[in-house]
Specification:
Elements (H helix, E strand, L loop, with lengths): L21 H12 L13 E2 L3 E6 L9 E8 L3 E6 L8 E7 L5 E15 L2 E8 L24
Antiparallel strand pairs: 1-3, 2-3, 2-5, 3-4, 4-7, 5-6, 6-7
Length: 152
């Protein structure tokens, strides 16, 4: 068995904090306007964090292009997203995402939830294999959508 170091294409993150396409904004607003569960089992407060990120699954071919994710919200343990790329539930990979201070982070994660939200678009969640304290609600100032928060 030969281990291959994954290559990363940061060109997908070149405009990571730019406004999302109108179709993505529409789908996110529709998801957020939907019915809320009677009991919210979320233990941590979610912070809105709208940036582009990429996900390269360990099960992907070495030359496969990473999936482009549009983040919805984040906690120190997980991230909700929207994508039009096909992912595999329960598979692990490396998430590349801008931190609140602007540098690109590489975070090992696993696809926790993944389901079709609209034709050709999928809503999902990743959990981080290790807690990411800079995404904790106390460290994340409230920011409007598509605006990269400044470090606290």
């Amino acid at each position: 068995m030969v281990l291959v170091q994954p290559t990363f294409d940061d060109s997908l993150l070149a405009d990571a904090t730019a406004a999302f396409p109108a179709e993505v904004e529409f789908l996110i607003s529709a998801l957020e306007a939907g019915p809320k569960p009677l009991v919210d089992r979320q233990k941590e407060r979610r912070s809105q964090y709208r940036v582009r990120a990429t996900l390269k699954l360990f099960s992907d071919a070495a030359d496969a292009k990473p999936a482009l994710l549009y983040s919805r919200n984040v906690t120190s343990q997980a991230m909700a997203f929207l994508t039009n790329d096909v992912l595999t539930l329960s598979h692990g990979g490396i998430l590349r995402i801008p931190s609140p201070s602007g540098e690109t982070l590489k975070i090992n994660c696993t696809v926790l939830r993944y389901r079709e939200a609209a034709p050709g678009w999928f809503e999902g969640a990743l959990y981080f294999n290790r807690e990411q304290p800079f995404f904790a609600s106390e460290a994340m100032p409230d920011a409007p959508a598509n605006e990269l928060p400044q470090p606290v």
